[in-house]
Amino acid sequence: MRIAIASDDAGLDAKQHLAAKLSADGHEVLDVAPQLQEEVRPDYAEHVALSVLRHDAERGVIISSRGVGASVAANRVPGVRAALCNDAYSAHVGAKNEGMNVLVLAVHNLDDKLAEEIVEAYLSATLAPIEVVGGLPPRRLQRVFSHVRENISRDLSVTELAQVVGMSQYYFSKLFKMSTGTTPHQYVMRQRVDRAQEVLRESQTALAEVAKLVGFETQSHFTSVFRKLVGTTPKHYREMHQLAPQASEDSAEKAATAA
């Protein structure tokens, strides 16, 4: 099963432990909100909810010090049913009877063993169907998501996205926001930044090239949007995420030299 997972800073250790356990059990785990050290991603719950909505993941798991707040944030995304569960029975019934597709765990009320039991019960339940009222029909919505993903490197106007599903710009914008809780423009900007984060974590591509790769005309605009959504600059984000691997390489090199 593909599982989207995220946490706030307080739940980081629990998230990493749980992600490792789920991967070992054969699940595909998507960490949809990698964090900076000592910084909190305030939109981590939204990231999980949108991943489920886009069908990037079949279910979501959020670990937070603010369980109720995370549940509320995830439930703002239409088509998502998120709930805070502190025991295995509630998690199983929530998925089976209520269609709960995002599980929220409160880090202060949790240890690793209990978290594993709750998540196992949640994943073992067959998910009840969820009826989404209003907004774009699911197939059309997925068509828009795919178009954005496949064309993220170039300009994407609301007019073009509306044409993908054969609607007027006004009607499309209204229904898209009903379906996702965000405007088409905001969604595209978020996808550009998400893709940029992947590139920054995995490569040394120049920042100007990263900006072009994800569809920004200028590096300054890229930096401005990135800072607004992530809370730091692209340069600092890369430094924080590539610092640990580099340090490990340096330590390994010193050990080899000493030997």
Count of helical regions: 12
The stretches of 5 or more residues where confidence is low (pLDDT under 50) are: 245-259
What's the shape? globular
Fraction of helical residues: 55-70%
Largest sheet: 5 strands, parallel
Oligomer: single chain
Number of strands: 5
> What's the alpha carbon Rg, rounded to whole Å?
20 Å
Strand order of the largest sheet: 2-1-3-5-4
Structural class: alpha/beta
Average pLDDT rating: 89
CATH superfamily of the largest domain: Sugar-phosphate isomerase, RpiB/LacA/LacB
Distance between the termini: 44 Å
CATH architecture of the largest domain: 3-Layer(aba) Sandwich
SSE pattern, N- to C-terminal: EHEHEHEHEHHHHHHHH
List the helices and strands and how they pair.
Layout: E1 2-7, H1 12-24, E2 28-31, H2 44-53, E3 59-64, H3 67-75, E4 82-84, H4 88-98, E5 102-106, H5 112-124, H6 138-150, H7 158-164, H8 169-180, H9 184-202, H10 207-213, H11 219-230, H12 234-258
Parallel strand pairs: 1-2, 1-3, 3-5, 4-5
